[in-house]
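For the sake of transparency, this paper describes our internal protein records without simplification. Because each token names a local backbone shape, the row as a whole describes the fold. One such record is reproduced below, unchanged from the form in which we store it:
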Amino acid sequence: MLSRLLSAFLKHKRTPPPAGVRTIPCTAVDRLMAKGIVYTIGLVINARLDTKILEESLSRLIEHKFPRAGARLAFRNGAYEFQIPKTFDAKTPPTAFTVNDYHEAYNRAGRPQIPSALTGSQPSIIPLPELDQFFRSKTCPKTEADFLKPNVPLLHMHFTVFHDVTFIGLTASHAGFDLLGITVLLAAWTRVINGDDFDAIPGMEWDVQPFTHYVPAPGSSSLTPTRTSQRGWFKLGWLSQLSFIGRSVLSSIRDPKEFGYLVRVPKVFLNQEKRKIMDELKAQGSSEYVGSSDVLMAWWHKTVYSYRAPTDHTPVHLLFSSNLRSRSVFAQDGPLAHPYTNSAALYLPVPPIPVNAFRTESLGELALRVRRSIVAYNADTASLRAELHWLFEGSNATKMVFPCPPGAEFSFTTNWRDGKLGALDFSGVVVSDSRSEAVATRVVLAYFFLTSDKTLPMRGSGCVLMEDDDAVWMRQFRGSKDWERIRQSGVVAFDGH
């Protein structure tokens, strides 16, 4: 009797949603990616763009094709949800827009140099230009708490415009978009501004919930009793946690300054190395193959561990983000049949590799390690489904897990190449006379940074930002002493030093 009364009381006290909105719960995948993170994707375009058309076209796209992107993030009745306005207007806009307009060219003394005209056939490491100020306004939310305030759009757009360059900054709560999800919106947006048939552009219904069948029914027993965490992540006991945290703190004390650098890897280099590896495999009679991204990851880790001692057997755990959209884990065991901007990624682990293997093994051997891990991961759909079932049980999405056990190291990389940021076409909104007809309008640099109400340690992580006609661009974070040891090893050129 008492329990029924308490249940009725709690039900009676439940807060209803605000008037004029439709609600969709955040999924466990949304919360796994979020962790209180706010991120900004920045695009540098080599022309002056019409910000009025940019605003009008994106607002129309969100209102009619991607209403979920115009949602508000809310925490109601103990759970996070998206509150999607039924009607967008001046008081309830689909997204927030701010503009800084400079009536001058970008290039002048004191401004960071944009590394867009580099050439060369060998990889190089480049100082990261401090461009944050051009991608976020002072009013852009910086924490998840900022997004939880009433009527704050899930997406904030900031344009900084010069006579010859436009900076586009997209700031969002990671709860609302993963990094490939935001590129879905960007691709549709550029189709609109270039005059494509609006009705022919695929959208995302406001009520789509592709992970619903992974949510356990109330009171049901565990579907994955033997699983304790996601693949590649470790649930540690309290002594191991103390050891892991202590080692991390000690590492930060020894190398306290953390820096991000741009890494430019020419396509001609990647293609040559890939061809060599494929020729070697063919000569061995092997049917295996490697992709250019496998070669890229193998080269990067071979480079950063090049200075380590040949007797160093410390295991290194490589973790890559894995896009689920094309995997057969959704309805009818198929891939997603429509665009999806919310989080749809997990982690793909590579079995631990000893540090000295990055010195002793060839680039081809390391690239094959990466490729074999990807092939094995993609082939094991049953484990991936079990992993999603586990993630959606209880509070598993927010449990504290670690990227490696104590005494090991880790490297985490997000690959945005599938997002094709470098191929985005903004030529439909170029202001006349802002550039020479001989110069094609293009994205010359993609940029990325995170903020949170908590300190976000970035060392050991990075992302493949974009590719252009000539090169693949990464952003990587390590300690300053680590960077200096890599520079002294001489295995890669450091430009601008």
User: Anything to note?
Assistant: Residues 238-254 form the longest helix (17 residues).
